[in-house]
Write a structure and sequence with these properties.
Structural class: alpha+beta
Number of strands: 12
CATH architecture of the largest domain: Roll
Catalytic activity: urate + O2 + H2O = 5-hydroxyisourate + H2O2
Number of domains: 2
Subcellular location: Peroxisome
Strand order of the largest sheet: 1-2-3-6-7-8-9-12
CATH class of the largest domain: Alpha Beta
Main location: other
CATH superfamily of the largest domain: Urate Oxidase
Enzyme class: oxidoreductase
Binding site for urate: 48-49, 150, 167, 216, 242
Strand content: 35-45%
Length: 279
């Protein structure tokens, strides 16, 4: 049991310069006894309102240097403070605020919310067990308008999809990875590096791109690049929900449409998922 959607903004000031972290936290506990379920005995139950207040106080006292460190602080607090807690799991996701720039100059106290992917993390721990930390990015919308195709697939009497050697590749990406033993990691630096790997593997070189024969191959390329460059990542899961675009037939309008006006196919949509880990 626990408390979901604990939302708050943490404001940090260094002189005149302000820093913000707006997050949503879910904190769940498992107690050493199920007596509240079986017998209606609430003597060990930490109220969910108390859980919420603890999260807010920890944000005030410790700040949020990274989502992962904050999630670890929450796990540590419940494990060291309450002997009746057998397991704790914390999920934290961040609102993507970025500092405003005016003529290239960063503003000291103004920000803009940029929908370029939502950062999140999870931390969980059993009593006398290891601390396990996951991190990720979701709702990251990506598109490339060429260097993608889909050919040579299996066909039977139900196949109507034509082969394409040049198409738009577009999708919404979810990526989640696990760390090994968490030492003094710079979680912020690692997250940025993984995000850069995702964008590089999806797009390819800026002057020519990289051909994608399928959404599945693109998913695998993302995972392989991350594992090759980020040694702290042990297992990485990637889900790519596809958005397809159809060329509008404008012949009846007396116009030749050479893949210049397209409409998205809202539903149904395809999805590719893969989990890849080190040996």
């Amino acid at each position: 049991y626990g408390k979901n959607t604990i939302k708050f903004l943490r404001l940090h000031k260094e002189g005149k310069k302000h820093f913000v972290k707006e997050v949503e936290v879910c904190a769940h506990l498992r107690l050493t006894s199920p007596q509240e379920y079986l017998d209606g005995n609430n003597s060990l139950v930490i109220p969910t309102d108390t859980i919420k207040n603890i999260v807010l106080v920890l944000a005030k006292k410790k700040g949020i240097p990274s989502l992962e460190e904050f999630a670890i602080d929450i796990c540590n607090h419940f494990m060291t403070t309450f002997c009746q807690v057998a397991y704790v799991k914390t999920y934290v996701q961040e609102v993507p605020w970025q500092r405003l720039h005016e003529d290239g100059v960063p503003h000291i106290h103004s920000f803009i919310c940029v929908p370029d992917g939502i950062r999140f993390c999870e931390a969980e721990q059993c009593r006398n067990g290891p601390l396990i930390v996951f991190a990720g990015i979701k709702d990251l919308k990506l598109m490339k308008t060429t260097q993608s195709g889909f050919e040579g697939f299996y066909k039977n009497e139900h196949t109507t999809l034509p082969e394409r050697h040049d198409r738009i590749l577009c999708g919404e990406l979810f990526c989640k990875w696990s760390y090994g033993e968490c030492k003094d990691f710079d979680f912020n630096c690692i997250w940025k590096k993984i995000r850069e790997c995702i964008l590089e593997a999806f797009a390819g070189p800026p002057d020519c791109g990289e051909y994608s024969p399928s959404y599945q191959k693109t998913v695998n390329c993302i995972q392989m690049l991350v594992l090759s460059r980020v040694s702290q990542v042990q297992v990485i899961e990637v889900v790519l929900n596809n958005t397809f675009y159809n060329v509008v037939d404008m012949k009846n309008l007396g116009v030749t449409n050479d893949k210049e006006v397209l409409v998205p196919v809202e539903a149904p949509y395809g999805s590719c998922a893969c989990t890849l880990g080190r040996k």
